[in-house]
Amino acid sequence: MPSILVVDDEEPIRTLAQAYLEAGGYTVHVAADGPAGLAAFRRYRPDLIVLDVMLPGLDGLELLQQLRRESEVYVLLLTARSEEADRVLGLLAGADDYLTKPFSPRELVARVKAILRRGRGGTGELDAPLAFAHISLDPQRFEVTRDGTVIDLTALEFRLLRTLASYAGMVLSREQLLERVWGYDFYGDPRVVDVHIGHIRQKLEVDPANPVHVLTVRGVGYKFQDDPA
């Protein structure tokens, strides 16, 4: 069965989340602070982490950044209802979804099921290396090169670029990219795609202000272009 790690410094929330998730058929581990959460992740390698933003020792956003350097594990953020900035930062850092406190434990289980159902961007052709005249992508290594130089992308940026490159020359809308990269009904602002596209351009393009590989098609979406290898 899939395993879940719940990282929250409030014992009632840990206990409630664990009870409902175990009733839903999941194996559940818990941690009460950021350092313990990181250690538990490395020990148990869960399929999904339910992560509170406000944690002692190492806050949830810092922990999320560390996780994204090591893994593509699914992350569901728990945030205070008033902390919209944390939710936005969490999504930009690579969280898969968020839930605001107080929350229904049934909704927590439903969100977990929805995230685990979707997969990380598919298999088959999308897992095959892609080689163009200037850009190459290796999904097995999560590595992108431009003219032989390795480009350091986050896991989410890589998935977004890989999706565009897999449909090279075709225009994909924000909604199509959200569906293919995030893979389920997105609860946040779809303009988060624009932010990640901007990050990719800053790293990938020789002149980010005048991109030649990741292009905007006004009123429609984005497309990738490069000559075939």
Description:
With 229 residues, this protein is α/β, with parallel strands linked by helices. Helices cover 41% and strands 21% of the residues. It is built from 8 helices and 11 strands. It has helices at 11-23, 34-44, 60-70, 84-93, 105-118, 155-166, 174-182, 192-204, and strands spanning 3-7, 27-31, 48-52, 74-80, 97-101, 130-131, 135-138, 143-146, 149-151, 214-217, 221-224. The strands form 3 sheets. The protein has a 5-stranded parallel sheet, sandwiched between helices. Helix 3 links the parallel strand 3 (48-52) and strand 4 (74-80). The N and C termini lie far apart (42 Å). Residues 121-126 have low confidence and may be disordered.
Radius of gyration: 18 Å
CATH topology tier name of the largest domain: Rossmann fold
Structural class: alpha/beta
- Estimate the global geometry from the Cα principal axes: elongated
Concise account of the structure shown:
α4 (84-93) links the parallel β4 and β5 (97-101). The longest helix has 14 residues, at 105-118.
Layout of secondary structure:
Layout: E1 3-7, H1 11-23, E2 27-31, H2 34-44, E3 48-52, H3 60-70, E4 74-80, H4 84-93, E5 97-101, H5 105-118, E6 130-131, E7 135-138, E8 143-146, E9 149-151, H6 155-166, H7 174-182, H8 192-204, E10 214-217, E11 221-224
Parallel strand pairs: 1-2, 1-3, 3-4, 4-5
Antiparallel strand pairs: 6-7, 7-8, 8-9, 10-11
Helix pairs in contact: 1-5, 2-3, 3-4, 6-8
